[in-house]
Design a protein that fits this description.
118 residues, mainly alpha, 0% strand, globular
Length: 118
């Protein structure tokens, strides 16, 4: 049942993003940024944890999950370090994902042949 919930949750989040791309004038970059901000806001008000509990990886892997991880990291760091945690918590919580994105981006740049789309 966990796999089904993850599939449904992730699929629904991605379908909503695709609808925004198809039906609005928003660029994909703005939609993706909006997803991160929405994840932060939903976690800050305590709603996204329920989605994570139900959807598992389907809720934590998309960009809403990145915002959720940022907000959760900030909350933990503020509890441990005080106001300094506002600046360090989000990056500490997401450092692994950020590092992976940089490394895999570099590998893709080294292995892929650049070219222009026609």
């Amino acid at each position: 049942m966990e796999y089904l919930n993850a599939f449904l949750c992730g699929g629904l989040l991605c379908a909503v993003g695709q609808i925004f791309i198809d039906r609005t004038q928003l660029t994909p970059a703005r939609i993706l940024t909006g997803y991160v901000v929405a994840g932060v806001i939903l976690q800050a008000v305590g709603l996204y944890q329920h989605v994570v509990d139900w959807g598992g990886a389907g809720a934590t892997v998309p960009l809403l999950g990145f915002g959720y991880a940022l907000a959760k990291g900030v909350a933990k760091a503020v509890a441990e370090q005080g106001a300094l945690g506002i600046f360090t918590g989000g990056l500490t919580a997401t450092a692994g994902g950020i590092a992976a994105a940089v490394v895999f981006g570099l590998l893709a740049a080294l292995l892929a042949r650049p070219g222009y789309k026609r």
